[in-house]
Amino acid sequence: MLYIERAVPADYPVIADIDLEVMESDRLDPHEMGSGGWWWVVKDGGHIVGYAGIEYAGYGEVGFFSRVGLLPVARGQGLHRDFLRVCGAEARRLGWTQMITYVHRLNAPSLNNFIKCGYKTYIPDEDWGCDGAVYLYRDL
Ligand SMILES: CC(C)(COP(=O)(O)OP(=O)(O)OC[C@H]1O[C@@H](n2cnc3c(N)ncnc32)[C@H](O)[C@@H]1OP(=O)(O)O)[C@@H](O)C(=O)NCCC(=O)NCCS
Fold this sequence. Notes:
By secondary structure, the chain is an alpha+beta fold.
């Protein structure tokens, strides 16, 4: 059975490993993940099969949806959208009124999920995401 729960520090190295595997970018530093970040994991029989994280965007009452990833075995079950709902609820609890993020323009599953959860695209004054980023926001 799959279930989402708040990550604890012991989960951070596992999240970093899965993130490296599914995102193929720089490895997260597990020692830095607890400072200024909120993380969740999805577990299957006690094993982490996905993760999501948010952090303060650095201005106003705005949060940044920083990372999400699922191992292939956990995809196609709505877990990204479940993460978005859980993270959105926490963001509201933190007093944030808006979430922002970016997704690569060719990442159709991720874009579809954000849009289904009420995110809209916007054009920033200055690019701050990856090359080919689509910028997204959602008022909470
Ligand atoms: C992004 C990610 C978390 C989404 O996983 P998921 O929630 O299981 O998403 P799904 O595979 O169910 O796909 C989401 C939607 O996109 C659709 N979709 C999937 N692949 C697609 C494709 N190649 N083209 C178009 N649509 C596609 C699905 O049908 C689904 O829509 P539906 O629910 O209406 O049927 C997962 O793909 C992943 O971990 N990817 C690697 C890491 C990553 O890209 N993270 C996000 C960085 S912004």
